[in-house]
Predict the 3D structure of the following.
Amino acid sequence: MSKKAKYPVDLHCHTTASDGTLKPADLVDLAAGRGLRAIGLTDHDTIEGWNAAEKAAQKIGITLIKGIEINTDWQGREIHILGYGMDGDNISFKNHLYDLQEKRVLRVKKIIDKLTGLGLEISFEEVNGFSKGESIGRPHVAQALVKKGYVENTQMAFNYFLKIGAPAYVPRYKLHPEQAVRIIRNAGGVAILAHPGAQEISFKQIHELVTAGLQGIEICHPDPSPEQIITYKKIANSLGIIATGGSDYHGPEIKKDIEIGDWGVSMEDLANLLQIYDR
């Protein structure tokens, strides 16, 4: 068995359905091997991995929390909204996801055009070869750049070409976080602000999102400093919203120092989340 996880529940994990490196069933196997009792599957803009993960979770005997991570932009920053417990058969929800996935394809094609203009020969087919699911994105472009030998690793690809301000950067489709909150809530889900410490989201901004329907903040995560964790716990308490947590696991090839279950929540915290969308 792998080294035991620090938390029994990890609510933020990615698979090959978006930009992770493990298949949904393999992610569930890994979680069980580390002793987790529940795992949240939160791929970017897709729920494609839910069925395979659920079958694996039922077979192994751990709880799968069906989730999603929707990427948005707000005031010049990239803000991510996590959703849990949505009705995957909700037509409006499915249509929104399809639209987001189409926007991702268009963005990647524009990035490739910019890279070509910089003298880097790379095709959409090469990039798409790294996308194992419905949700293609910059991490797949980065992997293609590594394979072609233009950079040594994916971090260099982002630093030199793909991050904001880099020569091949293309802004994402401008979805406001309040829109993402509505998409999740209208499908019966719970809307959570992901890793606010990474963007240093203020109390005022969180309060605005809570007024729009946000129900929680992801606090236990690799990004925030100890001081930020204290601050965001106080904000959650003062606004009467729940605190969640997760490793943001993508696989060892993406983030070498991130282990599944080393960030997360207690079973009591999970119960608080489940109580909201079970009402």
